[in-house]
Amino acid sequence: MRHIFVRLFAAAALATCCVPWSLSAQPTRPARLRVAVTLPATLPGGAPVPATGLDGRLLVIFSSDSSGEPRFQVSYGPGTQPAFAVDVTGWKPGETRILAPDVFGFPVRSLGALPSGMYRVQAVLTRYETFRRSDGVTVSLPPDQGEGQHWNTKPGNLYSAPRQVQVDPSRTESLRLTIDQVIPPIPAFQETPYVKHVRIRSERLSRFWGRDMYLAAFVTLPEGFDSHPQSRYPLVINHGHFSTVPDNWRETPADPDLKPDYSTRFSLAGYNRIQQELSHQFFKEWTGPGFPRVLLVQIQHATPFYDDSYAVNSANNGPYGDAIQYELIPEIEKRFRGLGAGWARFVFGGSTGGWESMAVQMFYPDEYNGAWIACPDPIDFRHYTVVDIYSDTNAYYYPSRWKQTPRPGHRNFLGHVDATLEEMNHYELLLGTKGRSGDQWDVWESVYSPVGADGYPRRIWDRVTGKIDPVTAQFWKENYDLSYILQRDWATLGPKLRGKLRIFVGDMDNYYLNNAAYEVEKFLKTKPEAEAVVDFGDRDEHCWNGDHTRSNAYSRLRYPQMVLPWAVERMLRTAPAGADLRSWRY
Q1: Prior bond to 107 cis, omega within 30?
Q2: Tell me, what's the pLDDT at 45?
Q3: Contact 155, 191 (CB under 8 A)
Q4: Distance between CA 366 and CA 482 in Å, rounded?
């Protein structure tokens, strides 16, 4: 059998290697497709144009999916539609900008490589503004407009109405589009008797960015807040992504006429109704007897790079950590009768919020009494998802002399991969150069990296090739590798963190975040005095939060119900002598 296999393999190899050149590598017609996008003489809505013109990122999406607008069909997943983009500067009304055949795209690498066919086409301009920072750097970035840094819904961004076209990349022609639509502003949040919205100008951030910068938060007030005017309350922060309304909060019953959707992620029909039902259930528990009476805070701290700042000080974003800790939180505690002490503050969150919860507990150890850390972004950069930034040389491929195996980027609970690390990064490069995609890999650089020579975050790796920069990696290690810092500073940090760290990750996290948590667990097992909890959910995906009794689809909607009883127990056990443990317990 072995001899037969060898002969068959040799025959196949011979057949492959000996195909005539004229058949296997015959030249194709050169790609000539161009897209000409015109800025109208008068912008939609009468939007003003700076004298220098508009700057930004111009995307053109070609979609074969008729289910919605093309601008909502671009991702790194298998359902993405191809898009192509260029940076534009000084674009004035009435002018036309050209996307040439060699323009960069994803998942099709260049416009000229787009297959012939019928497409629905749409152009979008992500608008940038100039920031002149106090560190002497001038950068062009998309300011948040109240939507949390989403290019396809950002108020003020311009776009064209979708149109259907027949595309033949080999034909000498220009596809012409006009961006004559504008995304409207986000409606203002309407406060309720329970939920208030706080917005303050941050002196620290305004000084850094060279313009007025703001922090905001939703503050959910405890039942009985008005009828107990002498009560003062603990403060619990729900860290996470930007939201225009409080997460998982609904004061009215679920909508009986809601058309049920289907959650592909959880394989659940009517997941939108489940979310509404559990959000209303939380409202009923929050306002019912015996529920912990605290100030529940959800911060809005979008930056020009992402939908939140990661709640720490950084070279590219500025002093967000200090601004939140020493400007926003004192203002909330002042307005809503907070206890205003570290023993009465807690943090929790998942994913980005998980990393933030661990980071602020470590960087401000006396200001918080506990962190519930679910599915955190990489907390050990030896496992920056699937990359060791210290020993690996390339982020996209495993090292091998003879083959090129791509590193996975996203999987399901069975380990099936639907995106590679290279694909995820090329998707972000499509959305923005110089770290301006507003997405995940770029935001990590905006937080962890020093300022690069061009004024933008220094790359941890080359976005096209994946080559890792060891100088940047060392900066990350010393300043933001939470596992390394925990071990490096344990002599002084350890006593301040006793009993405060609770880390929960699914062992089939979609982004491989469990790998970094294993390293932290390994260290904390050698430090029983830490009284830390590290737990893993069997076959649980992102973002498992420690609940072994419910599936991830349900437990992720119940963070406060899990965290607050633990917070109360810790406060009762660890509060200093004379602390107020009575006024808020009614």
Answers
A1: yes
A2: 75
A3: no
A4: 17
Strands (E), 10-160: 34-38, 54-63, 83-91, 96-99, 105-106, 117-132, 138-141, 158-159
User: Residue 212 and residue 337: Cα distance in Å, rounded?
Assistant: 27
Tally of residues, the chain: 586
pLDDT of residue 170: 77
Backbone φ and ψ for 50, nearest 5 degrees, come out as -55, 155
- Answer whether 80's CB lies under 8 Å from 88's CB: no
Contact 449, 315 (CB under 8 A): yes
Name the nearest CA neighbour of 35 among 112, 108, 107, 90: 112
Would you state the pLDDT for residue 30?
58
**Residue ranges covered by each domain of the chain:** 34-182, 195-380+483-574, 390-479
DSSP line for 411-456: E-TT--EEEEHHHHHHHHHHH-STT-S-SHHHHHHHHHSPB-TTSS
Q: Dig out the tokens for 94 from the structure.
A: 């009435």
Structure tokens belonging to residue 320 = 């967000």
Residue with tokens 């592909």: 264
What parts of the chain have a pLDDT lower than 70?
Answer: 1-31
Residue 431 contacts residue 151 (beta carbons within 8 Å): yes
**Tokens at 576, concatenated:** 């200093």
Q: Which residue from 234, 471, 431 is spatially nearest to 329, judged by alpha carbons?
A: 234
**Helix intervals (H) in 525-558:** 552-555
The pLDDT of residue 417: 97
Angle between helices 440-448 and 421-431 (to 10 degrees): 80
Residues 6+ apart with CB under 8 A from 418: 77, 78, 410, 411, 412
Joined together, the tokens standing for residue 479 give 């300043």
Tell me phi and psi for residue 234, to 5 degrees: -65, 160
Count Cα atoms within 13 angstroms, Cβ side, for 347.
32
Q: Which two tokens stand for residue 437?
A: 């995609």
Region 195-380+483-574: CATH code: 3.40.50.1820
**DSSP-assigned letter for residue 549:** S
CA dihedral 104, 107, 111, 112 (to 10 degrees): 120
How far apart are alpha carbons 22 and 20 in whole angstroms? Answer: 5
**CA dihedral for 310, 311, 315, 317, sign (positive or negative):** positive
User: Degrees (nearest 5) of the Cα angle 322, 474, 350?
Assistant: 50
